[in-house]
């Protein structure tokens, strides 16, 4: 993935595909989740093996672990907006 993620559903799909291309054996563990009205926030840890390029960084084949905070805005029961912050320093 070479750019920032769009806040819409297509952006979420593109980011998910890029994560699976860059990190094999990808696992996501939800540590915390909270909802307020039409917003849901999650705090997750992602683990995998760096087997594909990620933001221009060539694969290292090393195990990786990084944390992500996501907020999803829902409309009519479907995800409509998405914001995320990833701890890239730990990656």
Topology:
Layout: H1 9-22, E1 23-36, E2 39-50, E3 63-75, E4 78-86
Antiparallel strand pairs: 1-2, 2-3, 3-4
Architecture overview:
- This protein is α+β, with helices and mostly antiparallel strands and 91 residues long.
- It has one helix at residues 9-22; strands spanning 23-36, 39-50, 63-75, 78-86.
- Strands 1-2-3-4 form a four-stranded antiparallel sheet, covered by helices on one side.
- A hairpin with a 2-residue loop joins strand 1 (23-36) and strand 2 (39-50).
- The longest helix has 14 residues, at 9-22.
- The radius of gyration is 14 Å and the shape is globular.
- The mean pLDDT is 88.
Low-pLDDT segments, ≥5 res: none
Helix content: 10-25%
Main β-sheet, in a few words? 4 strands, antiparallel
Q: Which geometry do the CA atoms define?
A: globular
Strand content: over 45%
Backbone CA Rg: 14 Å
Let me know the number of strands: 4
Enumerate how many helices there are, as a single number: 1
Q: Widest sheet: strand order?
A: 1-2-3-4
Termini Cα gap: 15 Å
Mean pLDDT reading: 88
Q: H/E series, N to C?
A: HEEEE
Q: Please identify the structural class as seen in this structure.
A: alpha+beta
List descriptors.
alpha+beta; 1 helix; 53% strand; 15% helix; 91 residues
In short:
With 91 residues, the protein is of the alpha+beta class.
């Amino acid at each position: 993935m070479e750019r920032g993620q769009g806040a819409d559903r297509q952006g979420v799909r593109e980011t998910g595909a890029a994560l699976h291309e860059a990190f094999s054996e990808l696992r996501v563990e939800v540590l915390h989740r909270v909802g307020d009205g039409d917003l849901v926030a999650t705090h997750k840890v992602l683990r995998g093996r760096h087997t594909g390029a990620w933001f221009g960084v060539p694969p290292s084949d090393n195990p990786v672990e990084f944390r992500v905070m996501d907020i999803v805005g829902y409309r009519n029961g479907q995800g409509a907006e998405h914001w995320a912050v990833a701890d890239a320093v730990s990656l």
